[in-house]
Write a structure and sequence with these properties.
The protein is built from 17 helices and 4 strands. The protein is an all-alpha fold. The chain has a two-stranded parallel ribbon. A two-stranded parallel sheet has the order 3-4. The two termini are 36 Å apart.
């Protein structure tokens, strides 16, 4: 299959000029500490292809427009606008998060530093800016290279050591509140003070905390309804991200993020595909999957991680055939998310046994898996 990788720059339009200014501004902040790159900042970011210019611009444009319009609706103070504005803001954060994922794989621009600059800027929208963008990218690349869920934080041990916290978390999860992921995002906010290997980021961590907490406190004082809407929007982002992540792999996490220990399955592409699963929003129609930038086509993504989001459905059908039996449909995903919402921390739902590989896929298609929490690429630990 020939993938679109044209060698000529994308046509410069008003939209691409706007994104060039946006990315060049982000590039300044991303590269300012590295003075040797300062002379390169003025170079216009170029999309990887003309198709990339169209599709990525559409995703970024929707995300930025939805973000601004969502905030405008919340700040209007109109109760009728509250819910649609919060949902729009939340979905704009979802798209921004998946565009961070695209930037991490360098699928947007030709220059890696421009991808990094855009990813850094988007991390501020998604509230994932307390640490460095490179931390997000590094952990996610370890996931791909090691064929493993490489982490630092052992949340199972944490909950075993704090049974009351676990009880509250499980009760909230039963009420559809993503308390487990709230915990992970709270740890992210103070990661430089919790993770010894990131102590050098404490200055940045304090600065970002001061900026964001001050802004949120002012919002709460000035527009409490808008504050509630932002909290709802952020929760929506968390729920969508973890819903998509929940059944895409069947292997457990390992505490190897800051060690040289090598995964036993590193480099084994066949094993990787056997233990990776695609959970699409729709098999019949393309557009519903755009709501998550085709993130459900996870086997195709792992087969060729540099494939941009808009080419993943075609790649999936090229590699695995036009057979819906190769994916998990939406209905069983929703059934599992509802049925086992209190069991996703320890995967201890009664009547279910652990599954791997092909058996995992079949069990997911029958809605007989708990799925997982706290696997978001935004929480880089």
């Amino acid at each position: 299959m020939q993938f679109s990788r044209e060698a000529y720059p994308a046509k410069v339009t008003t939209a691409t000029r706007g994104y060039s200014v946006f990315v060049q501004t982000a590039a300044f902040w991303h590269t300012a500490p590295h003075r040797q790159h300062a002379r390169d900042i003025g170079i216009r970011p170029q999309f990887k292809s003309s198709r990339a210019a169209r599709w990525h611009s559409a995703a970024l444009g929707y995300s930025l427009f939805g973000y601004l319009l969502g905030w405008a609706g919340l700040l209007a103070g109109n109760a009728w606008l509250f819910l649609p504005a919060a949902v729009l803001l939340g979905h704009s954060l979802v798209i921004a998060a998946y565009m961070i994922h695209e930037c991490a794989h360098n699928t947007v621009f030709r220059q890696n530093r421009h991808n990094a600059a855009l990813g850094t800027a988007l991390s501020w929208l998604c509230g994932a800016c307390y640490g460095r963008y490179e931390d997000i990218r590094y952990k996610h690349f370890r996931h791909h290279v090691d064929n493993d869920d490489v982490v630092w934080f052992d949340y199972e041990a944490f909950f075993r050591s704090h049974p009351r916290v676990y009880a509250v978390t499980r009760a909230l999860e039963w009420c559809y509140v993503p308390a487990h992921d709230y915990l992970m995002h709270a740890l992210m906010m103070f990661s430089a003070f919790i993770i010894p290997q990131r102590r050098d980021q404490r200055g940045r961590n304090i600065t970002v905390l001061a900026l964001r907490l001050t802004a949120l406190a002012a919002l709460l004082w000035w527009q409490p309804l808008a504050f509630a809407g932002y909290a709802l929007a952020y929760t929506l982002m968390i729920i969508v991200l973890r819903f998509m992540d929940g059944i895409q792999h069947d292997y457990p996490y390992h505490l190897r993020l800051f060690s040289d220990e090598v995964s036993e399955h590193k480099g084994d592409a066949d094993w990787e595909q056997l233990h990776t699963f695609s959970n699409v929003i729709s098999w019949r129609y393309a557009w519903p999957n755009w709501l998550v930038l085709n993130f459900g086509y996870h086997n195709a993504h792992h087969a060729k991680p540099t494939t941009p989001w808009f080419e993943l459905p075609t790649l999936h059908r090229t590699l695995f055939g036009d057979d819906p039996d190769t994916v998990v449909r939406l209905k069983p995903q929703l059934q599992m998310y509802h049925r086992y919402r209190g069991y996703r921390i320890f995967h201890d739902a009664p009547g279910l046994s652990p599954k791997e590989g092909r058996e995992f896929l079949r069990a997911a298609q029958r809605a007989e898996l708990t799925g997982g929490n706290a696997a978001s690429f935004l929480t880089a630990f």
